[in-house]
Write a structure and sequence with these properties.
The chain is mainly alpha-helical. The protein contains 6 helices and no strands.
């Protein structure tokens, strides 16, 4: 006959040594989360820079193969249409790392908030018994996914501006419009606002996600 393990009463709880082990796992976990997020952002930034350099490399290759006369590149109206098409194509491709950067920031924030929630469970016990509290946040609302002034948010917005410039210049060249400064700046601003709206919606939708099923009615400490 299988023996059932003895159950602990609410008065007994877990010994403090178990909570110290949780603290060690916590510090290791949050360190790994930030390293993984940094690695993901670095990969996507490199991919974006590679895609944005594509039109320049293609132009150099075409000029070296004498498909394009280098003198045609000196004036806006003499640039071949397919070079503008390349700018648009690589600008659209750069939207993919832009979206992946947003998801990397959101995934890091979600995991960090979950660890903060986990930290909140044992920090109260250690503070009462050992007068010790971790030098890390215990607020499950931190960090915010929408943080455009933080370095991950700045990275996303700089890439959005670069994509907007590529798309605006490419579409203007394909349509045969004169490259007026006001027209180009207005186009870059409008396309950048579209990128920003995507960033804003994705971050806030992630933050206001549905709560998991809670059949035992555990208290919810995460917002």
């Amino acid at each position: 006959m299988r023996k059932t393990p003895p159950r602990m009463t609410p008065e007994e709880g877990l010994p403090s040594s178990q909570f110290l082990q949780l603290a060690a796992v916590d510090f290791t976990g949050i360190y790994a989360v930030h390293l993984a997020a940094k690695d993901e952002r670095l990969k996507m930034t490199r991919l974006a820079m590679s895609l944005l350099s594509g039109p320049f490399l293609a132009t150099i290759a075409l000029a070296g193969a004498k498909v394009v006369d280098p003198q045609d590149l000196a004036a806006w109206h003499t640039v071949p249409w397919y070079l503008f098409a390349l700018v648009v194509a690589f600008g659209l491709l750069s939207v993919l790392p832009f979206l992946r950067l947003i998801e990397a920031v959101n995934a890091c924030a979600r995991t960090a908030r979950a660890i903060n929630n986990f930290r909140l469970l044992y920090a109260t016990r250690l503070k009462d018994e050992l007068a010790w509290s971790p030098n890390l946040p215990v607020d499950p609302r931190f960090p915010e996914t929408y943080a455009p002034l933080a370095w991950p948010g700045i990275n996303v917005m700089v890439l959005a501006i670069a994509n907007s410039a590529y798309l605006t210049i490419g579409v203007t060249g394909l349509s045969g419009q004169d490259p007026h400064t006001v027209l180009l700046l207005t186009g870059v601003l409008l396309v950048a606002l579209v990128h920003y709206s995507v960033y804003y919606v994705r971050c806030n939708v992630t933050r206001r996600r549905r709560l998991p099923h809670n059949p035992y009615q555990f208290p919810n400490v995460e917002t």
